[in-house]
Amino acid sequence: MKTTMVVKIYSNLLIAVALCCMGFSAVVHAQDTYTLSAGDEVSIVVFGQEDLSVTGKLDENGTLNYPLLGALSAGGLTVAQLERTITRELSGSYLVNPSVTVSVAEYRQVYINGEVNSPGGFNYQPGLTLDKAIALAGGFSDKASKERITLTRVINGQSQLFSMRPTDSVLPGDIIEVAEYLQIFINGEVQRAGNYAYQPGLTVEKAIALAGGFSARASKKRIRVSREIDGQQQTGKIRMRDPVYPGDILSVPQGFF
After folding, report:
1. How far is 76 from 65, CA to CA, in rounded Å?
2. Residue 102's closest CA among 134, 62, 64?
3. pLDDT interval class at 257 (50, 70, 90)
């Protein structure tokens, strides 16, 4: 019985160690393939050479100042490529068969703007997703549209725009923009006048239902809409089956009784 229990504990320990090693290996591999850019801070360790083991940040041009070698163009290189570059430059002229290890000490920030409680720049964390990034920014504000989130990412020197889902990955340097939710406004003779979130496919009839329906004094056939068209606010009659668009102001007048 005791022998079986010891074997089981030992086996579980080996599994746990193996999983930890796998996780560490994945992180190392991810760093090796990570492309450096301005704002990233790297740690460079040269075995047996304390003066050449330093931590430095890439400037706005992607340049890294390094002892003996001076300014290195590190922006656009992967961690593994920078490691090979430093190894090559140090070999022969300065050292014989140098052992160089480069890792990311601190990633450049991600930026979260718009309808979050604490917009700004935040330190990147490996494994960061959109929902985790929003949490770093204090969560959504009351006006946030959770369906209208965009991300700007630089790929091969070009800024590209993406729509985002909560589980999508966020990378260093990404800019996240949370838009304000689209609204319509309903006033006059309805049960609950006010502003409401726009929904695709919304009609006047559905909008009135959002506002709790007509009041007893409502004139159902004289509903008017105020809508911005080509930069000008225009007002006109609207029917129950007509579509409603973001920003519309519906007014339900009182009937004549």
Report:
1. 16
2. 64
3. low
Note the pLDDT tens digit of each residue in 46-80.
Answer: 999 999 999 999 999 999 999 999 999 999 999 99
Task: Give the number of residues written for the chain.
Answer: 257
Q: Which residues contact 212 (CB under 8 A, 6 or more apart)?
A: 190, 191, 192
128 is written with which tokens?
Answer: 């960061």
- All structural domains of the chain, each given as residue ranges with its CATH number in brackets, are 2-106 (3.30.1950.10), 110-180 (3.10.560.10), 183-252 (3.10.560.10)
Place of tokens 């504000």: 141
Tell me which residue of 73, 76, 87, 77 sits closest to 44, measured CA to CA. Answer: 87
Edge-first strand order for the sheet with 100-106 is 54-57, 41-46, 100-106
Structure token digits, residue 127 = 């494994």
Please check the confidence at residue 16 and state whether its pLDDT lies above 70.
Answer: no
Written as one letter, the residue type at 3 is T
Give the Cα separation of 100 and 178 in Å (integer).
Answer: 42
**Nearest CA-CA partner of 125 in 74, 75, 169, 178:** 169
pLDDT at 140 over 70: yes
Separation CA 193–CA 213 (nearest Å): 10
